[in-house]
Amino acid sequence: MVHFHQEWQRPPAVLSLEANEIHCWVAPLDQPPTILETLAQCLSADERERAAGFYFERHRAQYVAARGILRHLLAYYTRQKPVELRFSYAENGKPALRGNDEVRFNLSHSGDLVLYAFAHCREVGVDLEEVRPLSDLDSLAERSFSPIEVAALHTLPPHQRLSSFFACWARKEAFIKALGNGLSYPLDQFDVSFLPGETTRLLRVLGDPAAPARWQMDALDPAEGYAAALVSDGQGGSLRRWVWDKALIVTG
Ligand SMILES: CC(C)(COP(=O)(O)OP(=O)(O)OC[C@H]1O[C@@H](n2cnc3c(N)ncnc32)[C@H](O)[C@@H]1OP(=O)(O)O)[C@@H](O)C(=O)NCCC(=O)NCCS
Fold first, then answer.
1. Residue from 69, 70, 169, 173 to probe ligand 1 pocket by mutation (most atoms less than 8 Å from CB)
2. What is the sign, positive or negative, of the torsion defined by CA atoms of 216, 121, 109, 14?
């Protein structure tokens, strides 16, 4: 049973996505069978096919939960039926709503949780990472972080290294997910802040000096043992943090 941090709340009965807002949602990936059955009903043929391709039943169920909840949340924001929603996929796999350029979203799953972000007419990227032991933390950092980030990581005492590693990882991943580039984007070509006590922000993007002023970066802290980040296009976005539960299932 995951306990969400207190800034993450049940939403009010009526919720609207205002122009300056970014709504983040967190949900447990392991849903009870009755909920899963309801969520499965709104999946498209290609999503069912993808679900059927998972080797482990738990992974199949988690995929159904993540996609089903996504559809029910999007249905709420678009006032469509979950089953009616159609997705398109950009070159590197980033999903978007087909025929609706206004509601943008992104999602990430790790451990027992799935995290979503929704915004109006602004691109978003989220990443969630379960903080897990890593025997090869230094070599992973060398391969995935910029030289400035690797140097910053080395200034930390051992007990702060693991959580800071995942804070950095989530922020970098959220940035490339906001861009939609996936791993085609060179991870060593931009720097993020991540040291304890530092303000969360994109520090520098090689070849794009305007990027740090353009992209808003926020650390999210949904639950103990997880690192998460949100990157959104444009500064001044106001974050709302919500916890999903079955009462949010759109009926009719
Ligand atoms: C696909 C990728 C965008 C994220 O993958 P990931 O971290 O394994 O998975 P997450 O759970 O965070 O995100 C997966 C979701 O992102 C979305 N997504 C897929 N491709 C995407 C893209 N190019 N851009 C943004 N979002 C994307 C999808 O909704 C996907 O969910 P799905 O399983 O329902 O299709 C890609 O960046 C990747 O493979 N990363 C590998 C991790 C890595 O080496 N990171 C280094 C960071 S320092």
1. 173
2. positive
